[in-house]
Amino acid sequence: MSTTNAQCAKTNSSVLEDVPSASLEIGRSVVSMKVLMKPIETITTHSKEGVIRPEKYRIIEDGETIVVLIDKILTRSEIKSAGCRELIFGCQGVINGYLKKFELIYRVPVCQWFLYRM
Fold it and tell me: In the prediction, which pLDDT does 82 show?
C-alpha cells in the first residue's frame, strides 16, 4: 500500500488515502510491475477437478507476435471485480531470453484472458 494525496474537485479539500500499489511480493523481495491489461490468446490445461492452468500465451505488439511459455505458476487467486469472477495467476516465463514474472487474469463469465501486469 502507498499513501496518496487526493484532492476533491467539489470541496477543494485534500484527503490522504491508502491505495494498493502494483507490486508482487515473492519471498522477501517485492517486484514492481507495470499494469498492462492487454488481451491475449492463451492455451490452458484443466485437471479432473476443473482447476485451470495456463500453459502459454500469445500477444501481438507493434505487429509482432510474441509467444510466451509459462514455466511456473507462482500464485493463484480469485476475486470479484464489479460482480465479475476473475482468476489471477502470478507466473514466470522466458520472454526474449529473460526469465520474467507476470500476472494473467482470466475473466470467467466472458472466457477472456488478459496480460495484467509485467
Answer: 85
